[in-house]
Amino acid sequence: MIDYKLTFETYTKNLLGGRILGLKCNKCSNYIHPPRMICPKCYSTDLNIIEFNGTGEINTFTVVRVAPTWMEDIAPLIIAHIKLDEGGFILGHLSDIEADAASLDLIGKKVKMIGGREVKKDIISGVNGAIPIFQLL
Ligand SMILES: [Zn+2]
């Protein structure tokens, strides 16, 4: 039996506090985000919880116009796929750009996490989750 190093509850609580937690492999030094039970590079389970610095680069994005109930109040909005500086990726709400102003110029721009928004009854886990909020640097 493999234990989860980083539980969903701990991860979510930290996102709401503006911190991105992930894992670092003690065998190959790979930074892992989203968190997993094993290192995707070397398959080791010898992982430590670390705090990512919260900065990264927009890899791609989408504009959400028909939003799920927990973000209807802020739709339309931009959800970005962000390559974290340490490695790995995260999905987050890009909050300082109007959805109608989104263009391909956003790709490659540097961003920083500024906080988290609670997601009531996450559809995957059935419990409350969080989505990180980013702004351009
Ligand atoms: Zn590894």
From TrEMBL:
Domain ChsH2 rubredoxin-like zinc ribbon: 18-47
First and last residue of the signal peptide: none
Cross-referenced PANTHER family: BLR3430 PROTEIN
SUPFAM superfamilies to which the protein is assigned, alphabetical: Nucleic acid-binding proteins
Origin superkingdom: Archaea
InterPro entries: ChsH2_C, ChsH2_Znr, NA-bd_OB-fold, Thioester_dehydratase-like
Gene3D superfamilies associated with the record: 6.10.30.10
Protein name stated in the entry: Zn-ribbon domain-containing OB-fold protein
Transmembrane segments: none
ChsH2 C-terminal OB-fold domain: residues covered: 51-113
